[in-house]
Amino acid sequence: MKKIIKSRSQKAGHPPGILVHLGERKEENSRINIFKYSEENLEEKEIKVEDISRNFPGEGEVLWVNVDGLHDVEIIEKIGQDFSLHPLVLEDILSTDQRPKIEDYGEFLFLVLPMFYYSTEEDTIIAEQVSLVLGNNFIISFQEQQGDVFSELRRRLRTKKGLLRRRGADYLFYGLLDSIVDAYFLILEKVGEDIEEIDDLLLEKADSELLQQIHRVKREMVFLRRSVWPLREVIAKLERRETALISESTLIYLRDVYDHVIQIIETVETSRDLISGIMDIYLSTVSNRMNEVMKVLTIIATIFIPLTFVAGVYGMNFVFMPELEWPWGYPIVLMIMGIVALGMVFYFRRKRWL
User: Fold this and answer.
1) Of 1-10, 87-96, 201-210, where does the model show the most confidence?
2) Are 257 and 177 in contact (CB under 8 A)?
3) How far apart, in Å, are the Cα atoms of 98 and each of 39, 102, 297?
4) Listed residue (258, 204, 203, 201) closest to 233, CA to CA
5) CA distance linking residue 147 with residue 163, whole number of Å
6) What angle do CA 179, 184, 187 make, to 5 degrees?
7) How many angstroms separate the Cα of 339 from the Cα of each of 16, 59, 278, 307?
8) Under CATH, to which class is 9-284 assigned?
9) Cα(33)–Cα(280) distance, rounded to whole angstroms?
10) CA-CA distance, 265 to 232, in Å (whole number)?
11) What HEC string does the chain produce?
């Protein structure tokens, strides 16, 4: 999972709007890909940052600019100049520890939210920050690295499926947002499978390895909760916001995204309760196992206390002990010790301590 806390020491003391990349460099080189389309035409290619201005959309066209890799500050600054983005927006794009939020700058909307997807190669959940800028006829998406959840959206653009090619930039904005939110369900499904696996293992064994798995899932749920809860407020503001950039017909689809976010929050809360319950069961199991061990050791020690007493009495080096001279003294003492031990075992079983 992504680190929750990042150092901001590089920006300490600087005025607002200073562009400094905060976060991990996840790409060797930044890449810029564009989709410029209308209902009839589609153009898809990778370009250099200096070529963006030559690919601005014409009448009836929509431009989607996707940037992979945020470490190159000059590229982000040049894109900001071409699209007249506010310096504070560029600052937020480069700071990859932002809380989900939306801001209206009049000419464009700026949205920040986390994106999650599962890596089968690394067997882990990948998390990164995605920044979306919605203009009148363009969308700019900023990602920390290559790899996202937009493959189906790109396929629909290429094959002219659905409404994407017939609608404006606001509908593409909804499509990107919906893809990110829908991916949360896949992550929650994977987390749910991990919880079921932990629950099954808990019945078989409760060891340190299982405890590490429980803590891993618990950390994931905490991070998911911190990411999703603010998103509800963001989507709610988005569907209520009066702006010419989002049409009334698109607001209907945004309400569906809001419903999905509510469902995700409820699932996250349920999963957190489940993992907390599993942790309690784990601790109870470990405690009960320790109690069983202590009970067995206590019973063994209790049985040997009178036997030790008898052995201690006849181990004293006194001369005048008549039993020492008896021919059957040794077998009789062993028999007495055996009777005492069996009697105590019978007593413990009668009390159901064994």
Assistant:
1) 87-96
2) yes
3) 35, 11, 56
4) 258
5) 24
6) 130
7) 87, 104, 46, 10
8) alpha beta
9) 49
10) 8
11) CCCCCCCCHHHCCCCCCCCCCECCCCCCCCEEEEEEECCCCEEEEEECHHHHHHHCCCCCCEEEEEEECCCCHHHHHHHHHHCCCCHHHHHHHHECCCCCEEEECCCCEEEEEEEEEEECCCCEEEEEEEEEEECCCEEEEEECCCCCCCHHHHHHHHHCCCCHHHCCHHHHHHHHHHHHHHHHHHHHHHHHHHHHHHHHHHHHCCCHHHHHHHHHHHHHHHHHHHHHHHHHHHHHHHHHCCCCCCCHHHHHHHHHHHHHHHHHHHHHHHHHHHHHHHHHHHHHHHHHHHHHHHHHHHHHHHHHHHHHHHHHHCCCCCCCCHHHHCCCHHHHHHHHHHHHHHHHHHHHHHCCCC
Rounded Cα gap, residues 16 and 94, in angstroms: 13
321: left (phi over 0), alpha (psi -120 to 50) or beta: beta
The tokens for 166 are 């017939």
Contact 80, 157 (CB under 8 A): no
Q: In this predicted model, what pLDDT tens digit does every residue of 120-159 receive, in sequence order?
A: 776 677 788 999 999 999 999 999 888 888 999 999 999 8
Those residues with Cβ within 8 angstroms of residue 12's Cβ, 6 or more apart along the chain or in another chain: none
pTM to 2 decimal places: 0.78
Q: What is the pLDDT of residues 17-30, one digit of tens each?
A: 567 767 676 767 88
Structural domain boundaries in the chain: 9-284, 291-350
* Cα gap 135→99, rounded to integer Å: 22
Report the top-level CATH class of 291-350.
mainly alpha
d(Cα 265, Cα 49) in Å, to the nearest integer? 38
Name the one residue in this structure whose structure tokens are 């071409």: 82
Residue 214 burial (10 A CB sphere; 0-12, 13-18, 19+): buried
Write out the two tokens for 45: 């290619």
